[in-house]
Amino acid sequence: MKSKATIKDVAELAGVSIKTVSRVTNQEGSVRKATLDKVNEAIDKLNYQPNTAARNLAGSKSFALGYVYDNPNAYYVLDMQNGILEECRERGYELVIHPCSVANKSIIDELETMVKRSQLAGLIISPPLSEMPEVLTALDKLNIAYIKIISACEVSDDSSPCVYVNDRDAAFEITEHLIEQGHTKIAFLRGDECHRSSHERKLGYLQALEKHGIQPNKSYQIDGSYSFEFGVEGAKELLLNEEKPTAIFSCNDEIAAGALFAVRLNGLDVPSEMAIAGFEDSPFSRQTWPKLTTAAQPTNEIARKAASSLIQYLASQRIRKGEQQNIPHLHFRPKLVKRESTQLLTEV
Amino acid sequence: MKSKATIKDVAELAGVSIKTVSRVTNQEGSVRKATLDKVNEAIDKLNYQPNTAARNLAGSKSFALGYVYDNPNAYYVLDMQNGILEECRERGYELVIHPCSVANKSIIDELETMVKRSQLAGLIISPPLSEMPEVLTALDKLNIAYIKIISACEVSDDSSPCVYVNDRDAAFEITEHLIEQGHTKIAFLRGDECHRSSHERKLGYLQALEKHGIQPNKSYQIDGSYSFEFGVEGAKELLLNEEKPTAIFSCNDEIAAGALFAVRLNGLDVPSEMAIAGFEDSPFSRQTWPKLTTAAQPTNEIARKAASSLIQYLASQRIRKGEQQNIPHLHFRPKLVKRESTQLLTEV
DNA sequence: GTACGTAATAACAGCGTTGTCATTCGGCTT
DNA sequence: AAGCCGAATGACAACGCTGTTATTACGTAC
Fold first, then answer.
1. How far is B213 from chain A (nearest CA, A)?
2. Is A125 part of any domain?
3. Per-residue pLDDT tens over the stretch B292-309
4. pLDDT for A178-216, tens place per residue?
5. Does A153 lie in the same domain as A115?
6. Which pLDDT value is given to residue B319?
7. Which of the two ends of chain A, N or C, has the fewest CB atoms closer than 10 A to its terminal CB?
8. Do A188 and A162 share a structural domain?
9. Are A265 and A318 in the same domain?
10. Does A110 touch chain B if contact means CB atoms closer than 8 Å?
């Protein structure tokens, strides 16, 4: 690899000192236009790429973000990852991904090791890890910057950067949509206990029922996990009710896909005999028949914005050390996507 | 972050020179047992983690692998990623992931920039990139070590590290399984042109037909892409044949899932009226009804072994510079998984 | 007990950047 | 034209580690 060009070569070719080159690459300012052009030209000519290692070492900071997650679902993870990556590339950061398991007792140690080893500038944490107080406390203790993505409809704690995803209102909207279709016997299949989203979504469901004067029916509410299998089991159980529900709102698309299968195996038509809605707008929801009504979560955008905010936050930290600074808070609200699984009308 | 402990602190505490500590952390040998213990004790006590940046800079090498892929499918990518990561963690390497698009003309430049920026020790490349000569040539020119994962049943080129996945024989086996079930009118839905696997699998299919004296029927062979949508379209087209096939072998599970839907929409029962097989053993294949017969690709293991071989190869390169060295070649063969979509008998 | 060879250890100079601080430049005031 | 000041630039010392080369310790043979 002829990737030899160092800052020295550039400086020499441009006829300036290495420090000036450094100023240019870091956009520090205080460089005259003429000089800047000379330097940039030299950089292009030599195809110069600053050495990350040297940069990190000398600056005793790093240009790498970490993405910490507990593999909730392949599409979500990949969407997040890609979104973060896009932002990182633009900003000249690197991404270190770190899947880990909530079940793992030593997760705190694991995170600590990771942060130290990789010299990360900051972390992006997605649920359910981002909703575990002990994890957040540990990170605070490590004194590492992070932005967490959580399910909540309002700012709950403004001391650290956060992305709020308003699952509750979106679930409310889905439930209202079902009610509009004439349903009153609406069941709910809830996802994992440890994901706040599953509770938020259920809350939205209950609020919608209440608003429309519908008595919630305990036997229509089953708790489980975010999985196809639970969808199948949960729907089967629902169908055991003497008075069967006419609609099932599933906490995510995977559950919905499972429910869909169980329902159709039972010989019921969807949506005429049973409406089914999911949540997330994952590819799943488009690969079932009929396609699933769901709530579209802009995961990729969430990821990008989260990364972007974190990077900005880090920059401001470097400048105003110690001082108070703006702590980013972002809000997202999944949007209802009406498809065939809940209504007869639409085009396919 | 009190992550202050440097090699100096450790050296001081252990009463040795920093070089000795370096020897210990790098397992260079030539350290007396007593000294080694002292040093290790100090490392533990200070919770010392070598600084990656300094390490890379001083050694002018790096401990990071890159995983380059063109997002073929979420489950595959994630399996690969996790496998590589597991190995990396054990060996103290980092992983930089790099999704990119085959369609992108400047992909070569992109790779070059990435390699330079991230100071990568080596690359792991999966299909279809690993099967594009121009990409491999570019990497050779960059003089970066890499291991490629390709679809092939025998060693084709022994000059660079390679993982061979024998799709052909696995496809042969699946086809034979269908023939054993009494099928002779077997259709084939092929995946993307640019993936060698799609051709290899088709070859296996054709070879099985030939072995059993079945005349291949051109109108039973449709080319498309690795997607659910193509599965739907392809199956529809197949059903237009006057003499319909009785079995569809789909190039992967996604296609199979699509085909399954189209077939059932057409009112045909699976497997009694139409058998359907997939390939890959992705979660898809277990979340359809009936479950899909498929070929299990040990993606996670492939990834681990690939990473492991690459790391070993890099190490041997460092030692025997210039000299001839063992170039790793690994072979994998997906295994037939019989499920309900091709046979009536089995338990659900 | 001396000499010798090898294994174990240390000293020290980089690696390619950035941070700090000193210096020079260019324009503006007087 | 001298004096001044902020902006632009440069010199040089870190950053924490590894590679290289020099030095010391230890065991063995005579």
1. 37
2. yes
3. 999 999 999 999 999 999
4. 999 999 999 999 999 999 999 999 999 999 999 999 999
5. yes
6. 64
7. C
8. no
9. no
10. no
Whether the CB of A46 is below 8 Å from some CB of chain B: the reply is no
Q: Residue B35 belongs to what domain range?
A: 7-50
Give the total number of structural domains in chain A.
3
A340-344, B114-118, B241-245 — which is least confidently predicted? B114-118
Residue A132: partners with Cβ closer than 8 Å, 6 or more residues away: A102, A194
B180 CB near a chain A CB, below 8 Å? no
Q: Which amino acid appears at position B202 of this protein?
A: K
Query: Using the CA of B57, which nucleotide's C1' is the nearest one?
Result: C15
Q: What is the pLDDT of residue A308?
A: 94
The verdict on A314 touching B (C-beta cutoff 8 Å) is no
- Is the previous residue joined to A290 through a cis bond, with omega within 30 degrees of 0? yes
Residues B125 and B40 placed together within one structural domain of the fold = no
Judged by average pLDDT, the poorest of A12-26, A237-251, B87-101, B198-212 is B87-101
Question: What is the model's pTM?
Answer: 0.88
Q: Is the CB of B215 under 7 A from strand C?
A: no
Cβ neighbours for B95, distance < 8 A, ≥ 6 positions apart:
A96, A97, B64, B65, B66, B67, B81, B84, B85, B88
CB–CB of B287 and A85 under 8 A?
Answer: no
Q: Is residue A342 part of a domain?
A: no
CA of B32 to C1' of C9 (A): 10
Domain termination residue (choose one: A250, A278, A296): A296
Residues of A in contact with B87 (CB under 8 A): none
What stretches of chain A adopt beta strand conformation (E)? 64-69, 94-99, 122-125, 145-151, 162-165, 186-190, 221-223, 247-250, 275-277, 294-296, 329-332, 335-337
- Domain co-membership, A98 together with A38: no
Nearest residue (Cα to C1') for D6? A30
For residue A46, what is the domain's CATH number? 1.10.260.40
What was the pLDDT predicted at B212?
A: 97
Average pLDDT, stretch B160-171? Answer: 95
- The C-alpha atoms of residue A78 and residue A169 are separated, in whole angstroms, by 25
pLDDT band at B347 (very low <50, low <70, confident <90, very high): very low
Q: Is residue A79 part of a domain?
A: yes
Q: Which of A203, A224, A212 is nearest to A185 (CA)?
A: A212
Kindly list the residues from chain B whose CB atom is less than 8 angstroms away from the CB atom of residue A7. Answer: none
Query: Do A53 and B49 make contact, defined as CB atoms within 8 angstroms?
Result: no
The answer to whether some atom of strand C lies closer than 7 Å to the beta carbon of A62 is: no
Average pLDDT over residues A59-71: 88
Provide mean pLDDT across the span B298-323: 84
Quick one: B138 and B191 in the same domain?
A: no
Establish if B160 belongs to a structural domain.
yes
Instruction: Give A283's contacts in chain B (Cβ within 8 Å).
Output: 74, 228
User: Mean per-residue pLDDT for A235-248?
Assistant: 96
Which pLDDT band, with edges at 50, 70 and 90, does B104 fall under? confident
Q: What amino acid occupies position A187?
A: A
* Cβ-defined contact of B82 to A95 (cutoff 8 Å): no
Residue B73 shares a structural domain with residue B219: no
What average pLDDT does the segment B32-36 reach? 89
Instruction: Look up the CATH number of the domain holding residue B110.
Output: 3.40.50.2300
pLDDT of residue B348: 41
A204 with A155, same domain: the answer is no
Provide, in whole angstroms, the distance separating residue A56's CA from nucleotide D14's C1': 13
